[in-house]
């Protein structure tokens, strides 16, 4: 997929305030400081489309971007650790949960995982919840440039072994590096293929 246009649409504090759900939507989520904004910017070939920060938990709203005038890319608040109060954290969790379960045009959720770390319970629990809730998702390993290739492969295999304890079939897996702009094209190809399928089958998101 060639990115011709990528523009910010709006930030929403409630899922009901999100843009009209009339075109395919792909959301990105992960633990705070997983490199989500950097990956989005690399994929969109836009230096500061999504706001990056050294402070975990910076994204606190649902941010929508229109890509090629045909689909939405959604930047969701991070889950897990963030320098916010427990009340705020619960509000974030409620915001994320309600969005994922109620956004009818959400085609796929990309769950970002830092490939440098061993499988984390918080990521595994979130994926388990997605599976039990019937939410289509893919796993995106980030920051592959921070490790040697063999270490990346080993950590991904460790993740697969852990997932196979509860999953018979694994979701799509992507290995990415925002720094080297690697892996993003594969994600965009998946989105393009999925959008083409939706068009060919006259899929409508209208109620």
TrEMBL record:
<comment type="function">
    <text>Necessary for normal cell division and for the maintenance of normal septation.</text>
</comment>
<dbReference type="GO" id="GO:0000917">
    <property type="term" value="P:division septum assembly"/>
</dbReference>
<keyword id="KW-0460">Magnesium</keyword>
<protein>
    <recommendedName>
        <fullName>Probable GTP-binding protein EngB</fullName>
    </recommendedName>
</protein>
<keyword id="KW-0479">Metal-binding</keyword>
<dbReference type="InterPro" id="IPR027417">
    <property type="entry name" value="P-loop_NTPase"/>
</dbReference>
<dbReference type="GO" id="GO:0046872">
    <property type="term" value="F:metal ion binding"/>
</dbReference>
<keyword id="KW-0717">Septation</keyword>
<keyword id="KW-0342">GTP-binding</keyword>
<dbReference type="InterPro" id="IPR006073">
    <property type="entry name" value="GTP-bd"/>
</dbReference>
<dbReference type="InterPro" id="IPR019987">
    <property type="entry name" value="GTP-bd_ribosome_bio_YsxC"/>
</dbReference>
<feature type="domain" description="EngB-type G">
    <location>
        <begin position="22"/>
        <end position="197"/>
    </location>
</feature>
<dbReference type="Pfam" id="PF01926">
    <property type="entry name" value="MMR_HSR1"/>
</dbReference>
<keyword id="KW-0547">Nucleotide-binding</keyword>
<dbReference type="GO" id="GO:0005525">
    <property type="term" value="F:GTP binding"/>
</dbReference>
<comment type="similarity">
    <text>Belongs to the TRAFAC class TrmE-Era-EngA-EngB-Septin-like GTPase superfamily. EngB GTPase family.</text>
</comment>
<dbReference type="InterPro" id="IPR030393">
    <property type="entry name" value="G_ENGB_dom"/>
</dbReference>
<keyword id="KW-0132">Cell division</keyword>
<keyword id="KW-0131">Cell cycle</keyword>
